[in-house]
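Technical appendix A lists one of the benchmark inputs used to test multi-chain prediction within the project. The record comprises two sequence entries:
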Amino acid sequence: MSDIAIRAENLSKQYVIGARVANLTLRETIVSTLRAPLKWFDTRSNSNGNKFWALDDVSFEIKHGDAVGIIGRNGAGKSTLLKIISRITKPTRGRVELYGRVGSLLEVGTGFHSELSGRENIYLNGAVLGMKRREIDRKFDEIVDFAEIEKFLDTPVKHYSSGMYMRLAFAVAAHLEPEILIIDEVLAVGDAEFQKKCLGKMNEITGKGRTVLFVSHNEDAIARLCQRAILLEAGRLVQDGSTEEVFSQYFSSLVRLNIELILDPAKMTPEGEHAWKIDLSGFELPGDSLDNFFHSRAILLEDGKKLGPPHTLHNIIRQDGKGAYSHWGAHLYFSSSDNTDPRSNGRTYVVKNNQLFRE
Amino acid sequence: MENMPSSSPVSLASSEAHFLIEPPRGWAALELRELWLYRELLFFLAWRDIKLRYKQTALGAAWAILQPLLTMVIFSVIFGQLAKLPSDGIPYPIFTYTALLPWQLFAFALANSSNSLINSQNLISKVYFPRLIIPLASTLAGVIDFAFAFLVLLGLMVYYHIAPTAAILYLPLFLILALLSALAVGIWLSALSVEYRDVRYIVPFLTQFWMYATPIAYSSSLIPQNWRLLYGLNPMTGVVEGFRWALLGMEKSGGSMIWVSAIAVIAMFISGLYYFRRMENNFADVI
């Protein structure tokens, strides 16, 4: 047997936007919160069947025991890559060879059920992640210890605080012991202290000689855990090298723009009961930055204060995670479940995003 | 490989697992061996469904018995007393209850598996496992209900002084047939429901229609002789008649009609497996 753990050859994945396939998911993204744009959306989406490559001819090899970080902006293809390697979705072209048992954590708490107790969820979640019953039995105490939930083991997790819930979810996941571990953004859980504990656990996992493939927006975490990084851009592999090298190129191509968009009440029109459509036609950003601007990291400010739920901003998220701004036209939706009309309350609304953008 | 020691580093040589991920091509193999490897997950998901089903109901698991029992009462009054449908010389209540047993299992599969994949969206888009586990687990959860309801049948047999004959030895065969038909319809509907959300709106009508097309309230002896083979194409016909024959000691077994049903069940089950496998590649993208 060779020392290769993962070999990807000419890996490509094509999605179709606007055809039936994408339409279902796209529609569901907004249907729960916004009813009104549905019609508008349907007619628009059925007419163009746009294809795009979420992953385009990506090849690489990863040796056993390596920890490799995957970086790139939103929509660069990171999640698609992890989904293919985790066998969740099939590639359109190319192939991946995996040597070893694969475990993937694309989310913490997958399969958790709020009505079930902590104990029951440990078993259920463990089984979902591919652990054997005996394996869970053996690690049960360790998991409970790590999550610090002894007292609430038999309480339904719906009564847990969000911190407890996340701790338990991470604890189960962290005790998964496959030969190849695929991780997507799971470090962002819990309070600062627990995050430190998580990072420590991750360090321990990578230190054990396990092969780890790791996607994160947390640059520090990648720098700490991985010696090697792969940079994806628009579905293509643009750089593959030491974490330092790749990061320096990645950052040099980006600028941190502090973009502010003042929402003009005159350009808002009500859509359904709790939503307002905002016309963004005068608002321009260089290159493809606009696509990225309304990504979830954009925050909404009211009179200079950050607004959380029930106020939310929606744009239409495409299947690959990109904002669909440029594709669907210049509209953004503002919604507020307590029914405050943003046009009439005399407040100012600003969308702010200090993400990194390409120049 | 299953027993990797938790403390020592993973040894490279220990790995025998090798996967090849390639674009889907045509009809995929069934990979039943892989399904077997995931049997624990199947068990856990079925256990979860059972656990959750009656968790917030006042009567709990009593529903498993009440549903067929109440249906039996209604049928006995309407079809037995008022319409006076013949029941082949057997007391009408137990005649219809014996049919309701496998029917409830089947109807349970119809109702639950058609939603099962959609309800497991988050699992499907975040973890890999053979997707077939999901409709299988949701169908198997109905087996517990079936077991409870079966106990009631035994009570009814005592009450009506019906002693089992040697035919009862065939009961396991019909149990398997009942389970296979429930699984078959579960697999088909769940795979269809991912692509066509319409399925969940069709299911209530389908269930109703199917029930009248199955000899539950009436006896299949009402069906003209030359239509019986065609009638047997409904998999549930053979299952229901088989149950009556094996449990109630009826003289006629329904003969060739049961064979037709058995073949229909197996054809539906195997074609369902292949169809599911073929569609499963797209589940994560479509759902």
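Chain A touches chain B through 55 residues (CB under 8 Å). Chain A is about 30% helix and 30% strand. Comparable benchmark entries are summarised in Table A2.
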